[in-house]
Amino acid sequence: MICDNITVGQNGHLLFAGQDTTALAKQYGTPLYLMDEDKIRENCRLYQSAFREHFGDKARPLYASKANSFKRIYEIMREEDMGIDVVSSGEIYTALQAGYDLSRAYFHSNNKTDEDIIYGMENHIGYFVADNVEEIKAIEAQAARRGIRQKVLLRLTPGIDPHTYEAVSTGKVDSKFGSAIETGQAEEITVFTLAQPHVELMGFHCHVGSQVFGEDIFERAAVVMLEFIADMKRKHGYMAPQLDLGGGYGVRYVESDPYLDVPTKVGQVAAAIKEACARLDIEMPEIHMEPGRSIVGAAGMTLYTCGTVKKIPGYKSYVSVDGGMTDNPRYALYRSAYTCLAANKMNEPADFTCSVVGRCCESGDIVQEGVQLPSSIGRGDLVAVCTTGAYNYAMACNYNRLPRAPIVMLRGGESYVAVRRESFADLCKNDL
User: Fold this and answer.
1) Per the CB 3.0–4.6 Å rule, which of 63, 91, 113, 269 could disulfide with 86?
2) Cα–Cα distance measured from residue 363 to residue 360, given in angstroms and rounded to the nearest whole number
3) Any catalytic annotation for residue 397?
4) C-beta neighbour count of 414 within 10 angstroms
5) Which listed residue (306, 340, 360, 361) is catalytic?
């Protein structure tokens, strides 16, 4: 199977985290997000162990909240002793509701408003990851009013092309994110920040893209960043205590995607960092990375109920489900690949080629093209979409006034609701 927490029962039903998806759909209804809590915790521990081994005890993996943000996920991160990054005041609020200690949180975004900065400081955010001089000025002003020194990292663009989806490529010089090293702007913002009396520069951050597997992108980015760090030490006497290399490791959406060996990849990045530090004659900074998708992606599955099956002889066939772009817009955004399965008919041959489409009044409401399902697929059958733990619930919306699906957590053979299904009343609760 595409992920190691997916199997098939003797009754021909798809099992996720050892639990019968047909029974879960009957109990909770569809559309339904399932999250394998045990897999999430396993992935957190995998990163932490690899970091301790290769970078030392001070190194820290930070869960990238934007991958999937809801109260229970922050409770798990707190319990697993993970750092987090957040990208909005809404994510900060959600983490606070989970009792997360924000002194361990890093606040990203290329355009934090004054209200965002105030909210972060009022709630004792540990670090701002600043994108530009305007933000540093705003942080300095707010910190001065409070009589504090606010810790920040500067986001830089190392000029690395990750060869990934253009929409999720963020490390190039012409990105909307960060200050470019190549143009001299990174040095300018570093010098400016060091001169601010109420800002404490703790280091640098970069992020080069998403869905990275075997490429040496992180190694190359690390070397560029360390060369910049050495340059700032030589020119300005500033040695960065921290280096955050961002996130982006990939997960398996389809059979052609490779498996990612996290400890091996982290070891390769560490080797490149140690070699560069020795060559540049600098001490190794405290290393951070920001896994998001690779923490929660494979821990998620979405279940749908099939409605209509439309066959156009000589053209194509459509299997419509009771969700779609409202709970997973990634195909519409990126043409993202997914593995789709007939959850209640896993013992039948998948001999029917179709497009799995959603229920929205939108021709682009497509879950996946070219899917192989059993020819008996029909109304009332279950369609499972695998590897939906990242950027599905996080991107969900109420287009066509459709309520958002619930999140049900699977843990040790049991299940519980972490986010309830929205009601029709929820759709109008803010209407006047």
Assistant:
1) 91
2) 8
3) no
4) 9
5) 361
